[in-house]
Amino acid sequence: MPEPTTTESVAPGPASSATGASIQLQQVTKRYPGQQRPAVDSVDIDIQAGEILVLVGPSGCGKTTTLKMINRLIEPTSGSIVLDGEDVTRKNADELRRGIGYVIQAGGLFPHMTVAANVGIVPGMLGWDKARIEARVEELLDLVGLDPETYRNRYPRELSGGQQQRVGVARALAADPPVLLMDEPFGAVDPITRQRLQDELLNIQEELGKTIVMVTHDFDEAVKLGDRIAILDVGARIVQLDTPEVILTNPADDFVVDFVGKGAALKTLDLTRVSDVELRTGTTATVGTPAADAVARARAAGDDYVVVLDARDRPLRWHRLEELEREDTIGGQVDEDLPTLARRATLNEALDTMLTASQNGVIVTGRRDTYAGYLTVDAVMSFMTPSSGPRAEDNPAPSAGGAS
Ligand SMILES: Nc1ncnc2c1ncn2[C@@H]1O[C@H](COP(=O)(O)OP(=O)(O)OP(=O)(O)O)[C@@H](O)[C@H]1O
């Protein structure tokens, strides 16, 4: 069985069992001493419990200031911040911060403390006993994909950037806060690690359903992670606050158009899952059955290829008819390079897989890697441009000799 080329990824969206808190910013203003204009000027934002809201906007527009006012690392000059119905501007700031996880670039770990000590800081401050802290550290390291045995006693300098970032996320989650604030959390890691950390955050979020407010410079990251995106201009003025779909397809004005950039049509590929597109089933044949039967069915259906499945319906390869005609029974050879994707993959990942494999189609698998159908490059194109006329040839036709 060939390895799927893309891992299962999780659709962004508020988790069904949200444990997060709602946050309302009401007429919030921050005026730094000596500055002519307020850094944040009378901002109103309603953040729903369990959603990921991403703040984006040009440098200096007030994103970080807005974020840090939520846990009062920066005190608002005026206005209210209401967390689950309670005005936090009147609450003890230290107590407030223990109920809000905070993640910054490169994890912001204490260099002289081990991983376990870093993750256990807040539970320690809350007076948890040693055994409970140890158990929690173990659980969290596991959650963020670090083996507790290996990493518990390491120091931050003994970790890669991505691992430090994972520890930072574990630390922020330690006391199970309803709210997580993240300031450029993945800004300091390479693109591949970044993508992996984003996927993990979505997995964790599906499990935990926190309210997450995140600042990023990377609009693609905002599209991937955000249930909603707030596009801010100077003074943290909200130019548009909506779902990624609406922002990409209905930008509020030219500022948003400029900000989103020319690739908006392509970015919508990141929003669409393979499971949103109608898959073609084609002709399938199980190993050990007569080849002539599969060839006849494929001819009748107008297919040039047969998808060969093992006894448990998992795809092994696709086979050209003219080759299959020379065989008696369907053989069990596995094409290690068969382009395969999970239904949760995005259309962007589907195109990527086809390009990498130099094939015009990709096999899609569902639960337990069973065959779900195939997707062609033409189907992806017609999905993007629904009015572009009749569909082109829809056989997966490997262009580089593919099937064997
Ligand atoms: N401590 C401070 N004292 C004075 N002015 C500040 C202070 N911190 C931020 N500012 C100013 O407030 C404005 C908003 O800053 P903020 O850091 O919130 O912006 P940002 O959108 O997060 O920027 P970036 O994307 O560059 O990180 C900027 O003009 C900045 O120069």
Automatic annotation (TrEMBL):
<feature type="domain" description="ABC transporter">
    <location>
        <begin position="23"/>
        <end position="259"/>
    </location>
</feature>
<feature type="region of interest" description="Disordered">
    <location>
        <begin position="1"/>
        <end position="22"/>
    </location>
</feature>
<comment type="similarity">
    <text>Belongs to the ABC transporter superfamily.</text>
</comment>
<feature type="region of interest" description="Disordered">
    <location>
        <begin position="385"/>
        <end position="404"/>
    </location>
</feature>
<dbReference type="InterPro" id="IPR003593">
    <property type="entry name" value="AAA+_ATPase"/>
</dbReference>
<dbReference type="InterPro" id="IPR005892">
    <property type="entry name" value="Gly-betaine_transp_ATP-bd"/>
</dbReference>
<keyword id="KW-0813">Transport</keyword>
<dbReference type="InterPro" id="IPR027417">
    <property type="entry name" value="P-loop_NTPase"/>
</dbReference>
<dbReference type="Pfam" id="PF00005">
    <property type="entry name" value="ABC_tran"/>
</dbReference>
<keyword id="KW-0067">ATP-binding</keyword>
<keyword id="KW-0547">Nucleotide-binding</keyword>
<keyword id="KW-0677">Repeat</keyword>
<dbReference type="InterPro" id="IPR017871">
    <property type="entry name" value="ABC_transporter-like_CS"/>
</dbReference>
<dbReference type="InterPro" id="IPR003439">
    <property type="entry name" value="ABC_transporter-like_ATP-bd"/>
</dbReference>
<dbReference type="InterPro" id="IPR046342">
    <property type="entry name" value="CBS_dom_sf"/>
</dbReference>
<dbReference type="GO" id="GO:0005524">
    <property type="term" value="F:ATP binding"/>
</dbReference>
<protein>
    <submittedName>
        <fullName>ABC transporter ATP-binding protein</fullName>
    </submittedName>
</protein>
<feature type="compositionally biased region" description="Low complexity">
    <location>
        <begin position="9"/>
        <end position="22"/>
    </location>
</feature>
